[in-house]
Amino acid sequence: MPFPRGKKPLSNGHKLLSTIPGMENQEESLHVKRSPSSPQGAPKKRSAFIDITNANKVQSSNHAKKDKITRKAQKTSTMKNEANLKKLGSLTSEGQTGKKDQVKPHVEERKEVPSEEPAHHQPPVPEEFDIDKEHSGDCFMTSEYAKEIFDYLKSREEKFVLVDYMHKQPDLNKDMRGILVDWMVEVQENFELNHETLYLAVKLTDHYLSCTVVMRESLQLIGSTSMLIASKFEERCPPCIDDFLYICDDAYKREELIAMEVNILQALKFDINIPVPYRFLRRYAKCVHASMETLTLARYVCELSLLELEMVPERASLLASACLLLALTMKDLGGWTPILEFHSGYTVLDLGPLVRRLHSMLSCPTDDKLKAVRTKYSHCVFFEVAKIPAVDNQKLEESLK
Known about the structure:
The protein has helices spanning 68-76, 82-95, 103-111, 146-156, 174-190, 195-211, 219-234, 241-247, 254-267, 277-287, 292-305, 316-330, 338-344, 348-363, 372-376, 393-399. It has 401 residues and is mainly alpha-helical. Among the domains are: 68-116; 161-267, Cyclin-like (Cyclin A, domain 1); 277-399, Cyclin A, domain 1. α7 runs antiparallel to α8 (241-247).
């Protein structure tokens, strides 16, 4: 169910569209009852979608055969490719003669079929670099193929590389995008959504804006719809459509949001499994057994980078590595170690330029009006990492040698 209509949804005291030049100013303030479980006291999620999991059922053939080999061929027919089906079909026709002495050769040849498929073997991880061995046997940690998962995510980054697209948007500028992302941070906090949801929503927004010309009146609709899509992908209990309509101060209709959802999904060809830096950041922090405070500091730097249009082209794994290196330097915990280089694939030389840009962003923010991230990470729940002073340039350069 949506939020109570008597209250406003966000804590910034203004409607997002009112901060964009040319839009109508609405100054009604928001007063939401805060929850003690949230660092900003945000309300809990109001409702969830029903279970839309599809159970794929394999239907067996209705034609039963008496021959043992024929039954086995039917059982495996849905699992083999066309070439294997032809081979099994020829074996079946020969097996229908009724001679029992032909059963054994047929079964043995069928067992050799999987050997025709190429086997992909990952090189073994060196003992000193194996960060998953401590979770061996834990089915929830998937330690047996954790490295393969992140190698796969890193390989997908090439498909989602973006460039600065703002020159294609005649009615938008980077300041408007910054205001939108700042608002999306508040939405994530108010709904108590996962951090992965926020990162994915920003990615969806950037990808849609990179291929579609939009007017500024639709910018908030795109942001809220991206949050809805990301919530469906990442959350166990995503907010409902009415909640997202309400946080936009009912500026849009239900049909408009649903239509925008279709537009975004079609623009991305329904491929929304975009690698986000937050996942890589947690993986790389595990390599050096970083404390929760150090990880939170790196998360703070990474979340600040969402506001910067210049950071859009950066790959997620590279951005996560640079944020962690900067956090390690600020906490005086050493530099880039061999185990980090092994799992990330990046050297200090690769990270140097991006680390310097992140340090400049942290020292001199481009817009003091965008305070959602800094306010969020100034809370004690996040160890007040936003109050940690930036490291001086000399110390930074020493860590990059």
